[in-house]
UniProtKB/TrEMBL annotation:
The keyword Transmembrane helix applies. It is found in: Membrane. Gene3D superfamilies: VC0467-like, Zinc/RING finger domain, C3HC4 (zinc finger). Pfam families: RINGv. The keyword 4Fe-4S does not apply. It comes from Chrysotila carterae (Marine alga). Its main location: membrane. This is RING-CH-type domain-containing protein. GO terms for molecular function: transferase activity; zinc ion binding. The lineage of its organism: Eukaryota, Haptista, Haptophyta, Prymnesiophyceae, Isochrysidales. Keywords: Membrane, Metal-binding, Transferase, Transmembrane, Transmembrane helix, Ubl conjugation pathway, Zinc, Zinc-finger. CDD domains: RING_CH-C4HC3_MARCH. It comes from the Eukaryota. Signal peptide: none annotated.
Length: 364
């Protein structure tokens, strides 16, 4: 009987092997930290040193690389577990910029003004084209339009079309800053992502269709009637990546409603909540809430903070805070900013009078 009990208590060879594997040290393929295997998982079919990962490291990888993160790039097997779309990081946070620009012109833009402009480089501020620069881009648009209507050589027409396309993105532009990525620019300054609220260009057909689909989705989840979703051409960058913006009535949110990576844009003089996010998260955040305004955004503009400071010093842009009214009036927004807001701008732009506004409008 004693011998039978000892045999029953003795571990088998298979059990010893299992225990040894459980205590085996492994290395996470992402953070390269060695851990005992119970703290690691094998999320795909890879073998060897690439087999194990920390669950939290895998989630971080999937959040930051959402468009290419559904499967392992080595064995091509789908990750287990998969990250839910609502937990993915907004693509805007991964935007980087590699600018080339001259240093800020300190003669036209003294240090005190540079500091004031830098303080405005945050979400909820506007980057407004100066009247001097608007006169130049307006003339570019007009010249390109005249060239396209006349009998010109194919090469001249091609050059005119490119010039017109670029100038229309910037002409009398009023760009709302929606995100600032700290030190995400290759010049080691901040990457600024902004969307144009005043562009006169027509959206692509796909953007208009996306706006209609967004309206239908919001109608299903929001409290009350949802107005027309406006489509805006917001800049020349990332035009294939969808982005939406909502203005919501303030309300207490549950933890589930706050889930997801929405960019919050603080606007002065209002309690309304302005958020920017991808479509699936926008509809999630709108559930049970009153939607005041909704936008489908096509593209964006990107600067590094040092690049923008340089362009401000060269009379191209001014900076001021946004107001709630800016989301309602596209056509007069640029004029309103310069006549009523006093944007921070280079010295030579001071005293913008009626003649400068007429020049900026006359060529457009």
């Amino acid at each position: 009987v004693r011998r039978s009990a000892e045999m029953a208590a003795a571990p088998t060879a298979g059990a010893l092997e299992t225990d040894a594997l459980a205590l085996e040290a492994g290395q996470c393929r992402f953070c390269l930290v060695e851990e005992l295997t119970p703290k690691l998982i094998a999320p795909c079919s890879c073998i060897g040193s690439a087999r194990l990962v920390h669950p939290e490291c895998l989630m971080l990888w999937q959040r930051r690389r959402q468009h290419t993160s559904k499967s392992c790039e080595v064995c091509l097997q789908s990750w287990t577990p998969q990250l839910e779309p609502i937990d993915q990081e907004c693509w805007v946070r991964g935007v980087q910029t590699n600018p080339r620009y001259p240093p800020a012109n300190s003669d036209a833009f003294p240090l005190a003004q540079q500091q004031a402009a830098t303080a405005l480089m945050r979400p909820g501020s506007l980057i407004v084209q100066t009247p001097i620069r608007a006169a130049q881009t307006g003339c570019q648009v007009t010249a390109a339009s005249m060239a396209s209507q006349g009998r010109v050589e194919a090469l001249a027409f091609f050059v005119a079309a490119i010039s017109n396309n670029r100038a229309q993105h910037w002409h009398q532009g009023v760009f709302l800053i929606v995100h600032v990525g700290v030190r995400d620019a290759t010049d080691e300054t901040d990457a600024i992502v902004a969307v144009n609220l005043a562009c006169a260009r027509h959206c692509e057909a796909e953007t208009v269709q996306n706006a209609a689909a967004l309206h239908a989705s919001l109608q299903e989840v929001a409290a009350g009637e949802v107005g027309t979703v406006r489509s805006l051409v917001c800049g020349p960058c990332h035009v294939s990546d969808r982005l939406c913006m909502l203005v919501l009535e303030p309300s207490a949110e549950s933890a589930e409603q706050r889930r997801g990576d929405a960019l919050k844009v603080d606007i002065d003089e209002t309690d309304a909540e302005v958020i920017v996010a991808e479509p699936h998260l926008i509809t999630h955040r709108a559930r049970g809430r009153k939607v005041l305004l909704a936008f489908e955004l096509q593209g964006c503009a990107v600067w590094s903070s040092a690049q923008l400071l340089s362009e401000v010093s060269r009379e191209r842009w001014g900076l001021c805070r946004a107001s709630p009214a800016d989301f309602h009036s596209r056509q007069e927004l640029w004029h309103t900013c310069w006549r009523e807001r006093s944007p921070v701008h280079a010295r030579s732009c001071e005293g913008a009078d009626g003649a400068e506004f007429q020049a900026a409008d006359g060529c457009s």
